[in-house]
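Input:
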Amino acid sequence: MPSDDQAPTLAASVPQPDGTPERLRRQIEFIIEVDQLKNVFRQSPLLAADRRENDAEHSWHLALMTLLLAEYADEPIDRSKVLAMVVLHDLVEIYAGDTFLYDTAASADQEERERAAADRLFAILPNDQRDHFRALWDEFEERASAEARFAKAMDRLQPLLLNYGNRGGTWRTPGVTDADVLARKSVIGDASAELWSYARTLIRTGADHGWVPRAEAGPRS
Amino acid sequence: MPSDDQAPTLAASVPQPDGTPERLRRQIEFIIEVDQLKNVFRQSPLLAADRRENDAEHSWHLALMTLLLAEYADEPIDRSKVLAMVVLHDLVEIYAGDTFLYDTAASADQEERERAAADRLFAILPNDQRDHFRALWDEFEERASAEARFAKAMDRLQPLLLNYGNRGGTWRTPGVTDADVLARKSVIGDASAELWSYARTLIRTGADHGWVPRAEAGPRS
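Output:
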């Protein structure tokens, strides 16, 4: 493994053939390096199999959802830009790891860890693509545009569907209540009133079924 | 499980809340149904972990590659359309299964199986989105546009990178030679001369290293 913090790790183990043009070589190294996203596991359980979801599958699911649900955006959005955002939004977790939405301790230094990871990962790319990807990721993180808000809404709605379909999933994490879920998911409403209405119905139905405890049912941990 | 061939299977096990609007309900059912793509496994081994790749991860990887490599397309392409194609190109395998590129027996009825799967799967969607997704998938399958040819090139280049990085991978399938790989991958050249030149270099380098047998080295099975 290289000691340089800016160097790729996985891609360094796959030397490119002599004569590969410099620009293409950097692009291919990035494509190889991000294979690791398939090995970053989230807390959310799949519906289709008895295992947790990984970030690559999750990102694909958001892209598919964007194709189908873009019509619900309350503001005009450039669908192509949303697709780019959801495809790359979790790449920093290759180096920074997945931070569970309901883990407040890990969330404390999440921003710093992810920014360092972005510096390191995107540096593999040619400079123009490095800057473009970084700008898209910053915009997503800051919810600084209609596209970023819609991408973030997809990112929050998708695990809600997995938890609802699994009759609980990560809703059953000790200490989590329906009020926590509502609070963490409210950013959906910044992108789409209709999808936020649907999301609230899912959470309410989940609480009705006992898949997530109600906030008033007991003390908060 | 429903007996109707046109009905969803997984989505039927996740009833939507009362009052969900009909159009949104069909879209959400589709989003749930396609969770199964994460459970369709390909022959290709990952680089980042010791297991085979699934279709959802693969589709995400193609979307990421499209973002980086679109500049190599020999014809003008609408990147947004390519992204949509690669996101949905393998959905039919949820019902039809993955057909290995070098399995000529399974390839015989592949087209028929996949068309039946497309009829069944896309019927879950609202009619306008059903028709749109089906048209995109048909266009991809027939390589009927510059976008379809580029999407297909991504689909062929990605496992080449995995095999090269794994010093063989599915290139080591009994009976497969470098000539077979070159023949199956030549559609890359229909989309991009530069990427096809790079792909040929990978295959030649793989043969030089003994990761794929040369066609002249022995009889073909």
